[in-house]
Amino acid sequence: MKSTQNPERATGRLVRGLGVASLGLGVPMLLRPGSVARLAGVDDSASAPGVIRAVGARELVHAAACLVGPQRSVWTRVAGDALDLALLGHAMKTRRAERTGLRGWGKRGQGERLTRVNLATAAVAGIAAVDLYAAVRTARAQHGKGRPGPLSLEASTTVNRPPDEVFAFWRDLGNLPSFMLHLESVTTQGDGTSHWVAKGPAGKKVSWDAEITSQETGRRLAWRSLKGATVANSGTVHFAPAPGDRGTEVRVVLHYDVPGGRVGRAVARLFGEEPEQQVRDDLRRFKQVMETGSVVRTEILPHGTEAKRQFLQGPAQPNDKQPNDKQPNEHASNEGSSR
Amino acid sequence: MKAVVWQGPSKVDVQEVPDPKLLNPRDAIIKVSSTAICGSDLHLYDGYIPTFMPGDIFGHEFMGEVVELGPEARERRPDLQVGDRVIVPFPIACGACTPCQRGLTSLCENSNPNAGEAEKVMGHSPSGIFGYSHMLGGYPGGQAEYARVPFADVGPFKVDEDLSDDQVLFLTDVLPTGWMAADMCDIQSGDVVAVWGAGPVGQFACLAAQIMGAAKVIVIDRVPERLAMAAEHTGAHPLNYENTSVLKELRELTAGRGPDRVIDAVGMEAHTDVTAIHAYDKTKQVAKLSTERPHALREAILSVANGGTVSIVGVYGGLVDKFPIGSLMNRSVTVRTGQAHVHRYLPDLYRRIRSGEIDPTFIISHHLPLADAAHGFDIFKHKEQECTKVVLKP
Questions:
Q1: Number of neighbouring beta carbons within 10 Å of residue B78
Q2: Chain A contact for B371, CB < 8 A?
Q3: Least confident among A139-153, A171-185, B264-278
Q4: Contact A299 B140 (CB under 8 A)
Q5: Which of A216, B12, B270, B334 would disulfide-bridge B295, Cβ 3.0–4.6 Å?
Q6: 3-state SS, residue B312
Q7: Cα torsion at B259, B262, B267, B273 (round to 10°)?
Q8: What is the pTM of this model?
Q9: Which residue of A299, A333, A334 to mutate against B (max B Cβ within 10 Å)?
């Protein structure tokens, strides 16, 4: 079921899992270094408990970074693995030298120790491989590096159209305002960048330039705002064929830095602007446009859905007020013709 | 124009409201010639459907004449013209999403722009429905002089001039709903079918079960004239729960097996002869601790034969209490439900009316002018004046 996973989310889960593993290793290393030394075959070394405690403390740093930090923190684990392998390599060398040099007493003990060192080394090497895999995945995550703000939003929908068509509509950035109600316009500029204009709070307009950071036709599209944007933002849309001939699975991941960060989001929520709901509503309208040709409206939502309007819906009656807001660019416009 | 507007529990009024306008390029405006009050409108009337608001216009059973067509509706369906006489299915369907293409039109994924609200209550949203609360789209209903019909290239169904409004009006909802109730039972020869509720949907469910080959149909209600109507027009065996124990009687009638297929055509405001249970359910419903009074459903589940089918078309809005899940699970009972996928059943049912096999007009007890809608709701709710179905004429 590869198509039903959001790749970024899967990477996130893996990184967090490794963070938990660090926690599981770090705590016994700090509290029971003697037992760990025996297990690793280095209990004959006077410096072992100190080194193990230090490694344990380091593991806790990894754990903290992987559990609450950005995904790419997993690189610190890769560095730690390299250090651990170096330490174990040293221990292995010492054990071997002792086994050949000191025939007679202690030979059996040293042999067992060597076996344990070898086992520990193999285990660490295995873990290192997983860490490296996770680290490479985060590097492949589309905007792991330029992720601008603390807010991350995800939403998904299934559109009953083929992936190439769904991708092409989204790739034509001028189409975005037809279903993203906060956008007024997106204009593609000659140099490959685009100019975005959005409605900000209290009717204020906000605009910024953005660039496409990566794309794979029919599969993925990522963009990022350029320096100077009032609200730094980036996003990725993943497209995948839906199982059972159901069209295309569309998954959106957005990152943005709203003024005030998490506090700003909490305040926005009080005013009915729930960002996650907005993304879901945008995707619902995207599906409507792709499948039916335009955004579906009712008398209570003459503009389509806006989160804040959901709190202020009037009765389900026709009303005389013409939509005074922008008309989304419909596929086929010409609407509202008179009787 | 004039429209039937909800004012609050048990209060409706016919008011002057603005005429509808085209909002989408695939819309049509219909001049309503006939519209009916549905049993499920009573749940709205009584205030038990969440997100139905004062000021909302009723009505999801309506038909009339096309007076205006959006440009894209014309383009996509050249055979539909201004002046055509059409019936309008109550679920709004786009025709393009996966459920629509699979014939599950009451699950259209595009016709409810307020789906976010329905998702909070139900997890996922069904289609939008005319005049049936904000969480199902907030569409003004058809108990009015005019109605806006979205996706006019998909929904409206043209009817021949020689058939009267009364003959075809119920194709919009109650006839396909009753038909689908029986269809979901997958009736086999020898099956005994029991139907709770002898309202219009129950009447048509009995009729459909008979046509689909049930060995015996039993109908359960407490209103004598409705039971008599079912017996006369569908051949169903009437059972008045005020005079007898339903479970015991059903056992007797089936020599202990229980009916093979049971249909709930009652929904969330069931009555029962057991006063204590009724008081308990009603108290919880009024206090908004539970949205439903599921007595008919409980009884249907307990009575159905081992390995049988429970088909639910009575409308439920939210959460149910004291649900006999143990009876369902341990006895291999199949549950099938749904708002009717009207579009799917329309052509076949229209042919049956056309050929004279089905005459759905027998359920009509009252024709009233639209202006008398409040009176219509009142007598329909209280089953006064032998009211079984009210058709309003704008």
A1: 9
A2: no
A3: A139-153
A4: yes
A5: B270
A6: strand
A7: -10
A8: 0.78
A9: A299
